[in-house]
Description:
There is one protein chain. The chain has 770 residues and is of the alpha/beta class. Helix content is 33%, strand content 21%. The chain is built from 18 helices and 34 strands. The strands form nine sheets. The chain has a nine-stranded mixed β-sheet with strand order 22-23-24-21-20-25-26-27-28, with helices on both faces. Helix 5 crosses helix 6 (454-463). It is globular and about 125 Å long.
Amino acid sequence: EMVEEEEEEEEVPAAKADGGVVRDPAGKIVLIPGFTKDQLDLFTDDQLEMLAEKAEASVAEAPKATKKKKSKPKPKPKKKKPKPKPKPMEYQLPNGLSYPVNDGNRWFSATWKMVPEGAAVMNFVISDGNNCYENNGGRDFHVAVERDDKTIEELVEKRYQELRNERKEVQEEKKRRFEHSSAQKKKFAEQARNLQIRQTATTLFTEPPVPVPGEKLQVYYRPDNTPLHGTTAVFMRGAANRWKGGSLGTVEMTPGTKETSGYYTCTVDIPNNAYGIDFVFQDGPGLEPERIDNRDSLDYHIDVPNANYKEPPMHIVHVAVEMAPICKVGGLGDVVTSLGRAVQDLGHRVEVVVPKYDVMKYGLIEDMVELEGFMWGGTYNSVSYGKVENLDVYFIGPQNGFFDCGMIYGADWEPMPMTDRERFGFFSKAALEWMLQSKRNPDIIHCHDWSTGPTAKSFWEDYQPYGLNNPRMVFTIHNLNFGEEEIEEAMTYTQKATTVSPTYASEVWNHPSVYPAHGKFYGIRNGIDPDIWDPLHDEFLNFPYSAENVVEGKRRAKEQLCAHLNMPMTDQPVIGIVSRLTQQKGTELMEHAIRVALGRGCHVCLLGSTFDPDMQENWDQFSNEMKQFNHNAVRMVFSYDEPLSHLIYAGADMLLVPSMFEPCGLSQLIAMRYGTVPVVRRTGGLADTVFDVDHDKLRAEHEMMQVNGFSFDGADVEGIEYALHRAIDAYHNDPKWWYETLSKGCMDQDWTWARPAMDYIEMYHSARKN
């Protein structure tokens, strides 16, 4: 519709003086044109005031109100439906950044109300509020704070110096620990050598004590307590360099003088190229005498220091299904790692082969890389390499799923088409195939327990004839309760076999799986790693200590243990138990001992775990009963708790180990390392390492040690009462002697791998000889 134009004047309003800024009654800004409420929440109060000022300034610059002529309206067009505004295709962010809009791209906001004074960089991570974090791949997020250059330079320099000092402290601490560790290992190695010489001297010694290449050596041999006991003629047969060097011939020995009564003696010439000499003694001159003393096939060996000729190092490969700390279930994993490190420290090359489990602690493997794999067993087998505790470790990962099942042991009890015997049998042979294909030919292949027992037979039947011809087999039994068939087969095919303590070897030598090959079966006790178990550098102790300050160290550790368990500090003995709760560990004797100890006013702290629900229910009831009548004196924790185990080993005065059988046992060794006195049942490795205060003085002297604990025989309550009462009485009768002599003596003793490693090396050489 057409209408006439009318010229009228219409006033155009000026912009509001406040720029459209709206404040609440308290004066707080709640609206600024151009900003949404969510956007305003991102700013601090000071920033909001700055934005408000800018809004008001823009209004001041706006033109004043004017008048214009109003024209007649033009024809109105037909109304059309407004087109919907298109959804934005991207988010527009500060600094010219933009991101696409989609269902997986949502934005959240948060506000720092105050940037701390002195801050140069703000650091943050994002969380969903339920322990799930986004931390920028471990680097965290950073936002620079706007500051003048001089301030930033000062802050950066300050932080640089802080980091430099922190790094220097870490390096100095590492250096101190390394020097301490090296000094300890040197001390223990010297003790082990002296012990070996002293124990051997009752049968064999030489003049001079240290042989000299190219010089004569006087050899003295005492046949008492040997297979030649009672003989009237003794012949010595010897050679240099593990029987591979010059022969010393067969020499008839003559009876010693008055000063060496009981000994037979002869003189031999040491070859110039000798780095060691080896002897056997026999009752006749030929190669087949009626009786021979070859130290149970290990021979008598004496090192010969030689500046020009050194004994070549051996190459040992361990094949195992456990390794501490990356895939450890029990003591087997500790032995593989600690023994490997100890033998490597003596100059030999050590490698370890384990399955590549999906449940390994990969964060504890250094510099892990994938190598070339191989086809075998109907599948591709990946091979990876990494460093674990400074050992070279290789991981075999078959693509058949054997080790991608979320467990180390336990396939037999799960609904899956494989058994542990099948999984580990495959791995045992795959390890040999890897050695063959990687052109390795080590001196010793050392397999462990039933799980890698098949390695021994497969080596001799499937690999030794086809290129892998240098190695000899060594097999260690850690647990006779599983895999008797695999153990018996390994015992048949191995050159040397061991178990984890001399007494345990004497207890099981007539086992059906062992007896047919018991002539090559030895007991070598386990040790502990002094770098891991060290009260002077224990991260879980508030007060580090050693044998030099054992009295204060034990008191401070007891205070920390009591505080940790919310127990009152006491001058009474604290008795600790760190154990699996199984029949093997003597749980019935444990319960009785706890009642006896509490009855005598002692405090008791137990850390234990069990997979048996009935056993757990029994201990829950027992714990409740004990707490009801002895609330302040007893604490029982049923879980795996590494920090608490360290506190018990350090803070307890005694450690109770009443095992029904114990192949070696590590808890009593760790306890002594921390100055805690063991109270044990005399069995297996417990008998080899604990010398009773009242009954074992001579045996301790033979081992160049002091008495260090209390022990009992039998499996009845009278036995454990006898040992426990004697220990408690000794504590009360002379606390000064308890700490300054008994505890200190425990800490000074060597229960590391120094001596066992030497014994294993001698056994490796013996396996090579055979």
